[in-house]
Write a sequence for this structure.
């Protein structure tokens, strides 16, 4: 089955998707190019219809169903991006769609899926659990399961993104792709190698807390994770698909992982420097580049796979990114619990151009003397060097800085 994915089949898919999906732009980023020491370009699939690449595979798969299958309807499982892709495709093709989403899925993704006309049902806590219920629904009703990644038509549809990269950045040497179930990675790698040659390295990136591919590639078959924990819900897939795994093993250079802190820093950089709203999973490729910026052969294209992020999650992740980037400092200073000490501390911090965001008093710590207080201060800084300078100035002024 995997051998049926060819450059010709991808070109046929691109023709079928013309007028349905957007040819998303590529944007060169000076900030990342300076860090990497080579040209870095962002493939902005966060600007795609439905906010991610998923409509490519979903529409192609559903457009190839028989008239009888289309009449019976479809069912899918997704944390949000595939859900929106299926809902949009179903609306365009006149197909009734039921989508199972895990409890806790981002509210904007649920609202967008419902807004496109799909019947949304909540089940389980992961995409894998929701998929079990979707398959049960298909058995009961005769609906066709539109799998988020484990079908050749899905992979072929996602591969059209790789075809666009080949046309937009023909001198590309490395492409970095966020990876969950592997459909996008498999498709992009195949399309690029077919269009440009095997010299193009295609690298998958997974969140550390949801990285099923490294062990699966090592074992040569899908290996399910026992548990997952990551903010990157778009790539939180507990087990690779048979179809994409076989292609990834053959076509991809390797798959690496990134931490939650690295995802946060990447999201912050994209918001601040590239002026792009991207969800944590969509920023995984940027996180990988930040992890070891000098280790990539350029030009480099990083796929921003999605932009469907809950504003509340974005706020928390950006704050986490500021902390990871050394832009926030939290210190506790132990002083005598007498008038004037807080005013003096704030004045001393002002001399270091440290912007105080929050102040709190702790008087219940068992290590405190009766006449002592810990003043907890949250400070906005200019980066790690500024953090160090602020702490050094506090020590120099005679303050007792308490760890944590």
């Amino acid at each position: 089955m995997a051998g049926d994915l060819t450059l010709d089949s991808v070109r046929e898919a691109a023709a079928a998707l013309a007028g349905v999906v957007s040819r998303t732009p590529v944007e060169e980023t000076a900030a990342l190019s300076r860090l990497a020491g080579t040209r870095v370009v962002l493939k902005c699939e966060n600007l795609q219809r439905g906010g991610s690449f998923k409509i490519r595979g979903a529409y192609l798969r559903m457009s190839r169903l028989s008239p009888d299958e289309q009449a019976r309807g479809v069912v899918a499982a997704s944390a949000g991006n595939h859900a929106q892709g299926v809902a949009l495709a179903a609306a365009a093709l006149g197909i009734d769609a039921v989508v199972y989403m895990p409890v806790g899925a981002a509210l904007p993704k649920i609202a967008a899926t419902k807004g496109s006309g799909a019947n949304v049902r909540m089940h389980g806590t992961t995409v894998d659990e929701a998929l079990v219920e979707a398959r049960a629904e298909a058995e009961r009703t005769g609906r066709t399961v539109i799998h988020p990644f484990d079908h050749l038509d899905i992979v072929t549809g996602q591969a059209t993104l790789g075809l666009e990269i080949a046309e937009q950045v023909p001198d590309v040497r490395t492409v970095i792709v966020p990876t969950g179930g592997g459909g996008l990675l498999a498709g992009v790698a195949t399309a690029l190698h077919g269009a440009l040659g095997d010299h193009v390295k295609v690298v998958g990136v997974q969140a550390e807390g949801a990285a099923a591919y490294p062990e699966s590639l090592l074992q040569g078959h899908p290996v399910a994770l026992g548990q997952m924990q990551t903010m990157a819900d778009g790539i939180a897939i507990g087990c690779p698909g048979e179809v994409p795994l076989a292609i990834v093993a053959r076509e991809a250079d390797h798959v690496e992982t990134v931490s939650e802190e690295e995802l946060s820093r990447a999201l912050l950089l994209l918001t601040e420097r590239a002026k792009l709203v991207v969800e944590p999973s969509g920023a995984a490729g940027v996180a990988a580049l930040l992890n070891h910026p000098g280790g990539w052969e350029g030009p480099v294209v990083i796929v921003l796979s999605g932009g469907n992020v809950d504003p509340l999650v974005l706020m928390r992740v950006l704050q986490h990114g500021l902390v990871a980037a050394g832009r926030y400092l939290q210190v506790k200073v132990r002083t005598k619990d007498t008038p004037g000490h807080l005013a003096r501390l704030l004045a001393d911090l002002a001399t270091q151009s440290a912007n105080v965001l929050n102040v709190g008093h702790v008087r219940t710590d068992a290590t405190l003397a009766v006449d002592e207080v810990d003043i907890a201060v949250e400070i906005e800084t200019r980066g790690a060097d500024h953090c160090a300078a602020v702490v050094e100035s506090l020590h120099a002024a005679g303050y007792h800085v308490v760890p944590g």
The chain is about 45% helix and 20% strand. Residues 54-145 form a domain with the Rossmann fold fold (CATH 3.40.50.1100).
